[in-house]
Design a protein that fits this description.
86% helix; Four Helix Bundle (Hemerythrin (Met), subunit A); binds fe (ii) ion; elongated; 0% strand
């Protein structure tokens, strides 16, 4: 079996989140708020799990090993906050079943998320792979989170 890397583990979680996001968006676009609402909540929980894994486990490991606390991880944390603010707005749109608002905001979130994930996958995760010696142990801790 191939040894897992931070890059592959995290990129595959990005993909899972993307797929869940697409399901929710499609259901709402088809006026199915019952399914769409559940799918949206599931996506929002999964994305928050992802952010928490990064902020509480992965980034601190990287910051400790490299001493880089004000660099790329700081920027990623800020972008997580921007996306959390968007999630709040989208939750409100979902609660009031405002389809136009929901779809406009999810479009914005999708673009923000794609750009964010691309930066992580192309720049940050490869840096992390090179800096951290024991990916297996860190991945195990993130899985339990
Ligand atoms: Fe992130
Ligand atoms: Fe990420």
């Amino acid at each position: 079996m191939l040894t897992p890397t931070i890059s592959t583990f995290m990129a595959s979680h990005h993909k899972e989140c993307d797929e869940q996001f697409a399901k929710a968006e499609e259901s709402v676009a088809n006026d199915d708020w019952t399914q769409g609402g559940e799918q949206w909540n599931k996506f929002a929980r999964e994305l928050e799990t992802h952010f928490t894994r990064e902020e509480e486990i992965l980034f601190p490991e990287f910051e400790t090993v490299t001493g880089m606390t004000g660099g790329p991880t700081q920027m990623m944390r800020m972008e997580h906050q921007q996306m959390r603010a968007l999630l709040d707005e989208i939750n409100k749109a979902a609660q009031s079943k405002d389809k136009d608002q929901f779809l406009a905001l999810t479009e914005t979130l999708m673009v923000t998320m794609q750009q964010h994930n691309m930066k992580e996958e192309q720049i940050l995760y490869p840096m992390i792979d090179q800096s951290l010696p024991s990916a297996v142990e860190i991945i195990e801790r993130m899985r339990q989170n």
